[in-house]
Amino acid sequence: MGVIMQAFYWDCPKLENREYQWWNYLKDKVSSLSSVGFTALWLPPANKGANINGVSMGYDPYDYYDLGDIDQRGSTKTWFGSKNELIDLIRIAHENRMEVYADLVLNHNSGADGDEVNPIDGTKRWTKFNPKSGKFPRNWKCFHPSLYETWDDMIFGGMPDLCHRNPQVYTELLEYARWLLEEIGFDGFRYDCVKGYGGWMVRAIQELRGIRKEKGYKPFGVGECWDSDRTIRDWLDETNAWSDNPVSAFDFPLRYRLRDLCQVYGYSLKHLTKSGTLLRDVPSQAVTFVENHDVVRDDPIITDKMLAYAFILTHEGYPCVFWQDYYTWGLGQEDSAGGIAALVRAHEDHAGGSTSILHVDDDLYIMQRNGWDSQRGLIFVLNNRGDWNGVPVQTQWKNTRFIPVAWHGKNDAATPQEKWTQEDGWADFWAPPRGYAVYVPQF
Description:
Helices cover 26% and strands 22% of the residues.
């Protein structure tokens, strides 16, 4: 399905000395990311934020249509750059066969130009918005509590919540999504804080159809439903009912299992096969990840993180790689078999089809991707022991040579041996100490 790069993290423009230049900085990375095998960029919110305590990451939307071309809220550019620089980044990504996803913050707004009393409950709130773009001006009628709906799912950060049941709000947000697709060039959306509003709003956006080069297309979508597997699946069921362009969701339950894999001594690999994750239960709708801009601040994976990346980049789902892991903390290693880059290449070249678990015990996990079309499949070995570990397994390939294309071990840089399967498909596959190995068939 491809591999996403989450191309930002909290305060990234400042921490990397790229304030107001992040879009330009990303442009210089697109070609190498594409050559590795990445197929999409997930960008931070492009809209002008409230910027109340300094320039913001955009999760406090003020003017949806100001993408860095209007002098307001203390600057013309957003923290990431100008509208033209964003459009140029998207153009370059498309030229390199990569999609670009916008972070869509629809639950709440911030930075209002004035406060006003909501007559429904008599409470004064900052809900009067007069953005300089002149598009989507808002007042108390656009927020909760509203004449159209008095009950609200979730309040975030004390910011006023938009009431999507108001026809004006509903229509404006659909038009905004259309504008991002058709006029700015985005290919899809990451929906922020989806527990704060009805899934029908996301479904309506997913039902939009864009036109590009005289051809229609459907936007990709993934929701941030930060909760249990059951809650996420309920949200998916609600949102995707009767939809012919279903949205996906981030697999938070899998992420926490992978955290424990990396950091909990004696973690049994049998847990990776149990239900309770999107990958296990609804893999076609799972966007898998190891770290993101939120969890890394409060609950980061500190040790043996490559085990987690090896898992998501060999299995089903749509894997997403975190910028800091790849670049800041040096796990990309584009010239090494032991980094994320080698796993991305293996994913794109070989990780097709369904999954068959060939062996699992507390310390050893061996999986087969069965292959589909040009992706002919692979064998993945995950080892939780402190020495080399492997067993014979029966694969679907007979009399076939396998070579290792990606591997990593704790304090052991040895290359796994090539393997040949017997006439009945049996062969022994091994992985380094506290590590993994990915083998691919040669035809």
